[in-house]
Protein 1
Amino acid sequence: MRGFEAFRRGDLDAWLNEAPDEWHTTSTFPGVEPVYRGREGLTALWEFMRAPWEMEAEIERVEDLGEELLVLLTARVRGKSSGAEAEWKAAHVISEKDGVTRVKNYLSWEDGLAAVGLDDSPP
């Protein structure tokens, strides 16, 4: 969770020190790659996400599923130039296999819950 706190503070170096080896995106947003790997890739992801937006997120629920960790969060962004705001419920599924830590992102709690085989009952 130190990586999450570093991200919230806007501390790139601290986030990179705690970041996973691979970050799998939803590939929903124009210009975003499906996977970012290593320090260089994660720096590019950071810049892509944080350059146009002020971001914040709150962890709402964490489920330790043994081989995976499910994190349900509420994300909020505000455009730095437009001031437009958006909020959504997102999910991260964190896993480690063969020494590689991966984060897979989902645009809804329901999708994240389904990815790990849980129902969508409220936290």
Note: The CA atoms of residues 21 and 38 lie 5 Å apart.
Protein 2
Amino acid sequence: MTVHRHRFRVRYGETDQMRFVHHSVYLLYFEEGRTGLMRDLGRSYADLERAGHLLPVVETGLRFRSPARYDEELLTETRVAEVTGARVRFDYRVLHAADGSVAAEGWTVLASCGPDGRPRRMDAGLREALRAAVEAPGTAAAAPVVQR
């Protein structure tokens, strides 16, 4: 399974009044991991959109395990979990870089559609690249770390 790892520090503007990362920000962390994984697969979102293939998020889930705070170093791990003809599910873990404990984990489902917003089968090349990522050998420990 291909795993994309993204290391970064929590910015002040990502925290709430309680000094924790605001719950909504985790979806941005997921997006950053997902777009990085897509780039690793040679399929950037920008290129897909220019070719008329859109992948809007249609479902998401998020579970908080332990709070993250300002200036803390985090690591987002992103994997392709499942691919069908018109949908793809990504799974995520946001880890505290200092000890590897889980701050949050979740998933998103993206649906393939055309520029008109109507559902359609996923681009065959993209679908095969995503399926290969599910089946690829490897572990998170062997995956490259990308920093922002």
Note: The mean pLDDT is 92.
Protein 3
Amino acid sequence: MNSFAFDASALAKHYSLETGADQVDYLFNQLTRDRLLCLMFGVAEVVSVLVRRRNGGVLSQAAFSQGLSNLKAEVLDDDDFSTLPTSNDVITAALPLIDKHSLNATDAIVLRVCLDLADLLRTEANDLVLVASDQRLLKAAQAEGLVTYDPETQPLAELEALVSA
């Protein structure tokens, strides 16, 4: 069984209409929350995306407020949705990935956490799918052996297969 880890670029799609939102919404509608996760600082990044879109006139105040309310209810307040912390040890372990894959620090941390979690899940005959739209992160994740899904470019049929696996 696959679990799905969102980076902020993918998670934000669920709270602000943009390309790929339907695929991310599909995951929220089809899966139990215990199969969905993100890093806690990814939640902060989603809030900053919503603020930028509101300030830029892309989101109305009502859509902004609704997005924040949904994020709180579906991610922060849902005990089954895993919001993973980032320790100094994880950050230190992620540093080599910055140079190896020419990643920014945030993406390297997301990748390190996903690699570690995938290793753990695989010991239980499960796996992890990284859901992201950042092409550099996706390429690095694939090079490291992670299963990935890009909601902006991959069809829903591929996501359905990953959900069923």
Note: Residues 2-164 form a domain with the Rossmann fold fold (CATH 3.40.50.1010).
Protein 4
Amino acid sequence: MELVGVRLELPANTPIVLLKETTGAGRILPIYIGGPEAAAIAYALEHVPTPRPLTHDLLRNLLVELGVEVRRIVVTELREHTFFAELELVQNGAVHRVSSRPSDAIALAVRAGTPIFAEEAVLEVAGQEAPAEEEETEGAEDGLVDEFREFIEHVKPDDFAP
């Protein structure tokens, strides 16, 4: 899967991450996520410097320090309108799979340069057809990037305070 970006779904201004199949039908997988996770993914995609490591940066740093490779992340399941994911980690040749929210897995994947996958069963249920024409896809991606930049420029830590 390719991470197309994060955007706000109108009219509710709900953050959504968009993944796109890199092979096959090129379906789009939209996953609703929380605001802090959207910001974490956006910061990583835009290479926004932070004065201190954010949570996902800390996780990546810990894994690197412990010699753990994040081999891939997989969106594994959609159950009762909730997506599930797994981190596939490798340490000293041993493979470990750890349950994760997709948003956290994606935020880590962006930082670690890790490939993102989705199970076919998930794509069959939640995947949406990509725009038919190449031009529509390029225009949509440009619009997503613009929305993304707008989100990053105006998001503040106080926006996520309880």
Note: The chain has one domain: 2-160.
